[in-house]
Amino acid sequence: MGEMQNEALTFEKVWAALMETRERQEETARQMKENAERQKETDRLMKENAERFKETEKLVKENSRQMGLVHNSIGELAEHLVLPGIMEKFNALGFTFTKDSQGTRFRDPQTRKVLAEVDILLENGDIVIAVEVKSKLRTETDINDHLQRMEILRRFADVRGDTRKYRGAIAAAIAAEGARRYAQKSGFYVLEQSGDTMKLDIPEGFVPRDW
Q1: Which of 102, 140, 152, 201 can pair with 116 through a Cys bridge, CB separation 3.0 to 4.6 Å?
Q2: 12-35 confidence digits (pLDDT tens)
Q3: Topology of domain 83-201, per CATH?
Q4: Cα separation values, 19 from 7, 14, 79, Å
């Protein structure tokens, strides 16, 4: 009788151990399934991030290309439309310019950092005119940027002992009326496209600003 109880007890222990092992196996399988699902989600997120990175890289390249086109179009506008004849237009006002240059950069003598870049520079022994070229002159911001540029040129000239007067001009293929008036009020000469050339518009009472 005691042996049967021992056998029944042994069977129960074995059965309980089997059930526990089964539960552990099922738990392990469940965790493995969850881990697999997490890995799939991680893979999906990594794939999405990779696609976003490719899209961002594409946008950066496109923006760089567009900026290059803008820079090139301004350079071409300056070279083919503004530069030819601009010296003669100013000399007809009584100036005696003997030198013009395009894309002139002013650098810090110590750091070589570019302080300012001028699209077209007209020079003689007494005066310098810095011409900013715009495809479209629309807002006061364009004029304010050139005002800051002129301040930089004046400080640069003072450091180098250049006592010549500096004046500014803006040449645009298209100029909004408000922007044109603001530029002239700021003391800038304004040149605007007229046919195949640039017209130098000087309104009555205009006083150019000296830097």
Answers
A1: 152
A2: 676 677 777 777 887 887 888 888
A3: Trna Endonuclease; Chain: A, domain 1 (3.40.1350)
A4: 18, 9, 89
